[in-house]
Amino acid sequence: MLSANKCEVKLAAHSDNWANLFQEEKELLNNLLGEHIQDI
Prior knowledge:
Elements: H1 18-33
């Protein structure tokens, strides 16, 4: 994989709100990318 930037991953404690946050992000990405994506 080619990349100019190094990535940093941070782990966080489980959140009961995770499913809601995921759904909001999924809707945002679907609205932005629409026909250019198959599934999230």
